[in-house]
């Protein structure tokens, strides 16, 4: 957020924009900073309302917005394929930010939070910083892309010597995350990349497992994953696709969206514009009801007053004729 405020000062945004649409925890946490440092007001909207509105709008405008990974169990060979999301309802929405919120969505304004977990993107980054000494999310993902979790985790074959045929568990499945790190020789041989990859596999497996159970409980067959954790992060999406494929035995696919990272901001703008439209409609109705009808001259005299009323109403709704949307997903609902 400090970077945005610095940019606003450097580019003179405060001279052009007086209201910023905002969502997420940062809309409340940084409200005073916006007012004091750049003289901007925040038009705050609920992060989940705006998220869903943004997703549905993007899907309508872009028929190829939604996709899944084919051959999800082979991460190296899995490929993106378009998914027809034109009839979305009902579906499970998994919002992966610092933590994870899971929603059951029945319609554009009909949804409920059914579960969540505190183990999300913030957990991944925090553990990676502790284990590898990295300093940013981008660095953590780069490390994870090059690592091998099998050098860190205890696999089924490490326990059974191979597959566990009775329950259909192949030998290369994770039986215990970080399960080999109690062995000194194993600890000394793993790399930073291996530790980062194991951390990512741990987080995504957990999210996939919970999402699958929510889909079963709600009797839904579509599970959509969103959140800033997934923005420009194909390895995490492929791992989630694998987890969903495994936990559901192929009956559920993990669905993703092309414009990840922008839905909150888009939903903010849509909701803000909706409030403006409502204010204009209300003013127009008031104007029609209150306009004198005794003569054409009296109607003409009433017009300046009504125009002034309309301008005042819109001004109150907007606080400015110029706005810019933003969304802060650092503090997405955790659990």
UniProtKB/TrEMBL annotation:
- What name is this protein filed under? pantothenate kinase
- What does the record give as the reaction this protein catalyses? (R)-pantothenate + ATP = (R)-4'-phosphopantothenate + ADP + H(+)
The processes (GO biological process) annotated in the record are: coenzyme A biosynthetic process
Compositional bias per record (Low complexity), positions renumbered to this chain: 286-300, 315-335
Q: Give the record's GO CC terms.
A: cytosol; nucleus
Q: One MF term in GO for this entry? A: ATP binding
Q: Which principal EC class is assigned to this enzyme? A: transferase
Q: Where is this region: Disordered?
A: 283-335
One Pfam entry name: Fumble
Polar residues composition bias: residue spans: 301-314
What UniProt keywords are attached to this protein's entry?
ATP-binding, Coenzyme A biosynthesis, Cytoplasm, Kinase, Nucleotide-binding, Transferase
Give the EC number.
2.7.1.33
Location(s), subcellular: Cytoplasm
The record's family statement is:
Belongs to the type II pantothenate kinase family.
Predominant location of this chain? cytoplasm
| Annotated pathway | Cofactor biosynthesis; coenzyme A biosynthesis; CoA from (R)-pantothenate: step 1/5
Asked whether the keyword Transferase is assigned, the reply is yes
């Amino acid at each position: 957020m400090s970077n945005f405020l610095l940019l606003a000062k450097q580019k003179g945004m405060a001279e052009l924009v007086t209201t910023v649409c905002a969502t997420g925890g940062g809309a409340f946490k940084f409200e005073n900073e916006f007012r004091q440092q750049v003289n901007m007001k925040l038009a705050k909207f609920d992060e989940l309302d705006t998220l869903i509105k943004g997703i549905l709008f993007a899907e309508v405008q872009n028929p190829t917005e939604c996709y899944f990974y084919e051959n999800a169990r082979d991460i190296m060979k899995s490929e993106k394929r378009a998914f027809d999301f034109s009839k979305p309802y009902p579906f499970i929405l998994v919002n992966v930010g610092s933590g994870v919120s899971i929603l059951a969505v029945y319609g554009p304004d009909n949804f409920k939070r059914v579960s969540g977990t505190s183990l999300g993107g913030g957990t991944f980054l925090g553990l990676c910083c502790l284990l590898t000494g990295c300093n940013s999310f981008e660095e953590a993902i780069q490390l994870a892309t090059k690592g091998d979790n099998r050098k860190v985790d205890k696999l089924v074959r490490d326990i059974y010597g191979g597959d566990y045929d009775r329950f259909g568990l192949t030998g290369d499945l994770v039986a215990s995350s970080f399960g080999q790190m109690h062995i000194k020789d194993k600890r000394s041989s793993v790399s930073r990349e291996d530790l980062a990859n194991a951390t990512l596999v741990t987080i995504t497996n957990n999210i996939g497992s919970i999402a699958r159970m929510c889909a079963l409980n709600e009797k839904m067959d579509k599970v959509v994953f969103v959140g800033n954790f997934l923005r420009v992060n194909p390895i995490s999406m492929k791992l989630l696709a694998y987890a969903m494929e495994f936990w559901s035995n192929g009956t559920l696919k993990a669905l993703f969206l092309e414009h990840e990272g922008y839905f909150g901001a888009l939903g903010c703008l849509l909701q803000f514009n909706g409030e403006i439209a409502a204010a204009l409609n209300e003013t127009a109705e008031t104007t029609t009801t209150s306009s004198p009808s005794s003569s054409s001259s009296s109607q003409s005299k009433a017009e300046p007053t009504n125009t002034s009323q309309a301008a005042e109403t819109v001004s109150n709704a907007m606080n400015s004729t110029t706005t810019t949307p933003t969304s802060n997903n650092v503090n997405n609902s955790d659990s």
